[in-house]
Amino acid sequence: MQITLESKPFAGIETEALVSYVFEETDPIQGRVSEIDKLAGGLLGKLAKSGELTGKPLEFTLIHAPAGLKAARLLLVGAGKKEQFNSATLRRIGGAALRYLKARSIKNFALVVREGGATEESAQVVTEGVLTADFEPDKYKTDKKSDKRIESVTIAGYSDSERGRGEKGLAKGRIIADSQNFARDLVNEPSNKMTPTILAQKAEAMAKAAGLSVEILDEKKIAALKMGALLSVAQGSVEPPRMMIITYNPPTAKPGAPVIGLIGKAVTFDTGGISIKPADGMEKMKYDMAGGATMIGVMRALASLKPGVKVICVVPSTENMPGGRAQKPGDIQTAMSGKTIEVLNTDAEGRLILADGVHYAKQLGATHLIDAATLTGAIVVALAGVNVGVFGSDQSFTDKLLASAKAAGERMWQMPMDDEYREFIKGTVADIQNISSGKGAGATIGAMFIKEFTGDSPWIHLDIAGTAWNDDAKPWLAKGPTGVALRTLVHLVMSY
Ligand code: BES
Ligand code: ZN
Ligand code: ZN
Which ligand 1 atom is at minimum distance from the Cα of 434? Predict the structure, then answer.
């Protein structure tokens, strides 16, 4: 999809649809919308008076052949209360407009940012909004929804002098959104087309194309490094595991500066292993590699955005299968760190592979750790598909992440990590056990387990089990993989 900036007056823009947004106010006809209203002979004012045009969030008002405009249609999108309006709302408006118009077989449109809104950030979020909204998980459909294609989007409302910052935002938005869609593509693949080996190949190809260094550890190297926790999950499958290491190392990074470690869970299919999951809904467990996909996507974006900080991405990947060699409840495994683990439930496998992932990231020199994982059903119970669960060992680091989440328009909610929860994973015959000996706080227990392998390093765990997959389409996003957390993590790294 082509996205361009247009600085000529919007009345003269030739497009299939001119799009802008209205705030929910007593008189929603203000600023640029009032200029449009004047050109259109007061039509919008009439619609507002009759109550048809109110500015309520994501209300759509489509007008055909509007007077005074070169555009074939005028689309007004409700933006809600002006005081609550921010770039996250604008991103969604851009996305929702795209999906609304695409469904009507429209091929191009121009979105006019409102008065005072011609910033770098506006162009960035509109670009992110339209590109992520355009993503359809229909790769394997012969009758593709993506045959209905938006070919080009114009971002308007920028004067000649504002154009430069608009272009900058547009370029940044494209890098981020393309990386988010790249991650979503990986997640959308079914497990027969996305094994650990294939995922590693895709990660390697991306890294090489982007100019990042990359190393893929195969099952032999994984065994030589004594990654016993990862191997224990992998042993039940005929598909061999992989450990991916992608490094971004800018020449400007100073010795002694923080090194960020990004670790992503990539279980390409989670049957539960011997502690097998129920059949109903099991097909969804192809997205159990979303954390890994997100981290690979983050690296793709960083390669272009070029932050000044070193970043090491570690993605342990395996299937979790109940094969003849599968580990069994009660088995004791030794993680790479040397800690011994009682595997009381083979379905709590994400924390096992992350144990070796975070330990290895530390060994490679990461000083600040962040992992992302579809780790627990409990986080879905607690936060549904609305918030990412955030767990942290260092409040100032966690606060930084939460601020980035806000800036990136991704909802995240901090969950407790009190020392009292440590009791629940104390082992009977080994150092620790992989599930709780008590009841409740399932998501925290999962986080507590990973924390055992982080030592003194500031560490954040993102449980994306509820948010990595959209069960229903949103007006601005298709059903399926979301690529959640990517924008927040890119923002966080860029803030160093
Ligand atoms: N991959 C699942 C978590 C999950 C559940 C992701 C629902 C997405 C949607 C994870 O490996 C798992 O099975 N966790 C168990 C842990 C339990 C055995 C302590 C769970 O949440 O039930
Ligand atoms: Zn599991
Ligand atoms: Zn899992």
Answer: 19
Quote the percentage of the chain above a pLDDT of 70: 100
Amino acid (1-letter code) at residue 60: F
Q: Over range 134-161, report the average pLDDT.
A: 91
Joined tokens for residue 37: 């209203």
The burial class, CB within 10 Å (0-12 / 13-18 / 19+), for 334 is middle
Q: How many CB atoms lie within 10 A of CB 320?
A: 30
The atom of ligand 1 lying closest to the CA of 445 is 19
Nearest atom, ligand 1, residue 349 CA: 11
> Which residue among 321, 343, 347, 484 has the greatest number of ligand 1 atoms within 8 angstroms of its CB, and so is best to mutate?
347
Confidence of residue 146 (pLDDT cuts 50, 70, 90): low
Q: What is d(CA 220, CA 224) in angstroms, rounded to the nearest whole number?
A: 6
Q: Under a CB-based contact definition with an 8 Å cutoff, are residues 196 and 268 in contact?
A: yes
Question: Which ligand number lies closest to the CA of residue 385?
Answer: 1
277 classed as catalytic: yes
**How many other C-beta atoms lie within 10 A of the C-beta of residue 363?**
13
289-298 burial code (b ≥16 CB/10 A, e <16)? bbbbbbbbbb
Neighbours of ion ligand 2 (CB under 5 A): 270, 347, 349
Q: Is 306 a catalytic residue?
A: no
Angstrom distance (rounded) from CA 136 to CA 188: 10
Indicate the residue type of 96: A
Mutational test site, ligand 1, from 286, 376, 432, 467, max ligand atoms within 8 Å of CB? 376
- Compute the distance between CA of residue 263 and CA of residue 292 in angstroms, rounded to an integer: 7
Res 251 pLDDT > 70: yes
Question: Which one, of 403, 414, 399, lies nearest residue 458 by Cα?
Answer: 399
* Mean pLDDT, residues 150-164 taken together: 97
The two beta strands, 242-248 and 213-217, are antiparallel
From residue 62, give the alpha-carbon distance in Å to each of 21, 268, 394, 480.
12, 43, 49, 28
Please state at what angle helix 31-39 crosses helix 43-50, rounded to 10 degrees.
110
- If you average pLDDT over residues 131-138, what whole number do you get? 96
Whether pLDDT at 144 is above 90: no
How much is the pTM? 0.98
